[in-house]
Inverse folding.
């Protein structure tokens, strides 16, 4: 589940660069190998924390032109509840730091953010945050965090907790972006946190039961592992098949059980309340469109594919609860579909373009700002590339697309009161209490952990509820009414905003006293 590389032109959230990308298990990530000098002026803007579990420490500060990059070590609890550590980066523009503005945050879920793309969004007024993988070092700072259904999700959750407690961050304006596995993580974070202003995702995994069944079923067709990715008849698919064993090692191999449905955004769409822009291709070979729709699929030409290749949704989905697609799970009036034709002079993407710079096309298609609806919660952009092709990844053809206007509009657009509903509040209260009502099950049958340290979870939930209540009287009334209807009352029999303020002050003191 990796995008075809961005070959030339301006990078964006939806066009990934670095033609020498590293394929690691499921996807390739882009490595930053900076040779930039350390900058002194940013010191004191991002502090190391100490004195409480989960305290984040600064490990490096650098500057590149007018962009400051701070790398931090992020402690977190893994899916088995054991302490682990990963890394993250935040990118800040010098002028915005010096002017003292609160930063809205654009979080790149699961994948690194390269300097070109980070600078683009910093120049538009965002602080940009993303995980950072030290793949040259053993241990939890490298490979352990690169498992989107396991510890990788928990690490990203912890990074967002840290970003939201930075004193210069505008907590009410968090934009989530992600592609493939990163799209899955972005949707999961959108379901976990309040407030989230908007989400932009490209080919997100929304049904793990189907997607893992698809990868498992096509091992023989891809000649995995007898071949290698360049000689495989399904070269990009070949490279993501290792995710099967990675997921099975964490949650078990029985796809008929509910656990992979429970892991999937499909099971918690009611907690994703923010506006969402989704882009998907009819030809996607890694995250098949079959999990999103039954009616808008590209026609499969079986003559192109090796014997045994299959992507049929009903045949590959083993869990009964998971046998529904996205557009059967969301009311039609909440979804706006746009079908985008192939760009003029479209060129098909081939593995050779990824591996050989000289084979990259000399021209690029015209850049396209993705269309979206201001009335529907879900804007779904479908790239009409026809049927799948065995040599394709997420795309069959080369596109230059970006969600520029969607990101810009929601940076300023007021939130709707419906940003908080009963399902979202119930989950937030579970986070506050440190116990999820229906925990995921690990391969050995024990409960999986999806939360971070208790103090940090409590502080974030209280801060988020207050961020929401401060948006206006209607928001505060809705919060109080939803709390009254909830079966959980950890903040008192009735919710009083003034008491919530006092709770936040107490939690803030515990988190900030040792900075």
């Amino acid at each position: 589940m990796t995008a075809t590389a961005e070959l030339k032109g301006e990078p964006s959230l939806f066009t990934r660069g670095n033609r020498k990308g590293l394929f690691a298990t499921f996807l390739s990530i882009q490595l930053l190998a900076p040779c930039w000098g350390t900058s002194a002026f940013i010191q004191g803007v991002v502090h190391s924390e100490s004195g409480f579990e989960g305290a984040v420490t600064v490990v490096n500060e650098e500057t590149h032109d007018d962009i400051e990059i701070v790398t931090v070590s992020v402690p977190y609890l893994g899916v088995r509840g054991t302490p682990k550590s990963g890394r993250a980066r935040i990118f800040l523009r010098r002028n915005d730091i010096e002017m003292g503005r609160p930063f809205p945050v654009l979080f790149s879920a699961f994948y690194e953010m390269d300097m070109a793309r980070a600078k683009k969004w910093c120049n538009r007024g965002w602080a940009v945050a993303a995980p950072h993988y030290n793949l040259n070092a053993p241990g939890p700072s490298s490979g352990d965090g690169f498992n989107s259904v396991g510890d990788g999700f928990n690490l990203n959750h912890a990074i967002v907790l840290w970003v939201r407690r930075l004193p210069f961050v505008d907590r009410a304006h968090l934009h989530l972006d992600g592609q493939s596995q990163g799209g899955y993580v972005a949707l999961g974070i959108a379901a976990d946190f309040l407030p989230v202003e908007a989400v932009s995702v490209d080919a997100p995994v929304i049904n793990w039961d189907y997607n893992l069944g698809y990868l498992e079923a096509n091992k023989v067709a891809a000649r995995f592992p007898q071949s290698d990715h360049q000689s495989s008849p399904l070269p990009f698919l070949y490279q993501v098949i290792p995710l099967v064993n990675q997921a099975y090692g964490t949650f078990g191999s029985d796809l008929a059980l509910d656990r992979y449905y429970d892991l999937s955004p499909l099971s918690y769409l009611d907690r994703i309340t923010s506006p969402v822009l989704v882009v998907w291709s009819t030809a996607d070979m890694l995250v098949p469109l079959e999990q999103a729709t039954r009616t808008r699929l590209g026609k499969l030409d079986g003559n192109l594919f090796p014997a045994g290749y299959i992507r049929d949704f009903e045949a590959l989905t083993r869990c009964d609860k998971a046998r529904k697609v996205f557009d059967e799970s969301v009311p039609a009036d909440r979804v706006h579909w746009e079908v985008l034709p192939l760009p003029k002079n479209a060129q098909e993407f081939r593995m050779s373009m990824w591996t050989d710079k000289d084979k990259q096309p000399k021209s690029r298609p015209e850049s396209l700002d993705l269309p979206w609806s201001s009335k529907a919660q879900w804007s779904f952009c479908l790239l009409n590339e026809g049927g799948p092709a065995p040599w394709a990844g997420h795309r069959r053809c080369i596109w230059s697309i970006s969600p520029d206007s969607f990101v810009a509009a929601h940076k300023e657009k007021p939130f709707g009161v419906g940003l908080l509903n009963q399902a979202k509040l119930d989950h937030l209260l579970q986070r506050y209490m440190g116990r999820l009502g229906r925990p995921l099950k690990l391969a050995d049958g024990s409960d999986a952990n999806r939360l971070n340290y208790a103090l940090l979870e409590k502080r974030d939930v209280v801060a988020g509820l207050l961020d929401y209540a401060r948006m206006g009287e209607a928001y505060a009334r809705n919060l109080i009414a939803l709390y009254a209807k909830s079966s959980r009352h950890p903040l008192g029999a009735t919710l009083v905003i003034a008491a919530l303020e006092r709770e936040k002050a107490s939690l803030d003191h515990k988190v900030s006293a040792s900075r």
About this structure: The chain has 16 helices and 14 strands. The first strand starts at residue 22 and ends at 24.
